[in-house]
From TrEMBL:
GO biological process, alphabetically ordered: canonical Wnt signaling pathway
InterPro entries for the chain: 6-blade_b-propeller_TolB-like (IPR011042), Cueball_EGF_LRP_Nidogen (IPR050778), LDLR_classB_rpt (IPR000033)
LDL-receptor class B repeat segments: 1-43
Name this protein carries in UniProt: LRP1B protein
One cellular component term from this protein's GO annotations in UniProt: plasma membrane
Organism: Chionis minor (Black-faced sheathbill)
Gene: Lrp1b_2
Domain of life: Eukaryota
GO molecular function: Wnt receptor activity; Wnt-protein binding
Length: 179
């Protein structure tokens, strides 16, 4: 799945399949400017930062179990969001500090470091990398991912895929080759 935010006409947090199909709103009320998103891949939770409401909230992948982690002036200038173990990590764009926030109750907010011009944050750790099972976009004997000549996108599950073409090409009638 692909998770993303939108704050155009209607602010929302959405999810879809990697090929763009099955687009689903998972949050569309009491939300104004969701600008950062982080996933808890193990427990299947979506965290987001709303810069208009000065809040960090969470829902499960279906949009249930919503609650506010932290709200208020202490998180007014945040950008970027990452989750690891018991904490959320974010950047305060006002003073360029990296903040750590307890993701279960919003307490224990600590400034960890300062970085010049930081706008985004990511946590890279072996435990956050999920094991990948075989899938429909694996490279075939001819070196083509999922048998697609350009781009292979997983569909509704790991056994289904959709082929797409790079800009300037169109998908052939076979659904795999690009012309």
């Amino acid at each position: 799945k692909l998770f993303f935010t939108d704050y155009g006409n209607t602010a929302k947090v959405e999810r879809c399949d990697m090929d763009g199909m099955n687009r689903t709103w998972i949050v569309d009320s009491k939300i104004e400017q969701p600008t950062a998103l982080a996933l808890d891949l193990v427990n299947k939770y979506v965290y987001w930062l709303d810069i208009y409401l000065d809040s960090v909230e969470v829902v499960d992948y279906q949009g249930r179990k919503r609650h506010t982690i932290i709200k208020g002036i202490q998180i007014r200038h945040l950008c970027g969001l990452a989750v690891f173990e018991n904490y959320l990590y974010t950047v305060n764009s006002d003073n360029l500090s990296i903040l750590r926030i307890n993701r279960y109750n919003g307490t224990d907010v600590q400034a960890l470091a300062r970085l010049d011009n930081a706008k985004e944050i990511r946590v890279y750790q072996k435990r956050t990398q999920m094991a990948v099972r075989s899938h429909a976009c694996e490279v075939d004997p001819y070196g083509m991912p999922g048998g697609c000549s350009h781009i292979c996108l997983l569909s509704s599950n790991y056994k289904a895929r959709t082929c797409r073409c790079r800009t300037g090409f169109i998908l052939g009638s076979d659904g795999r080759s690009c012309k």
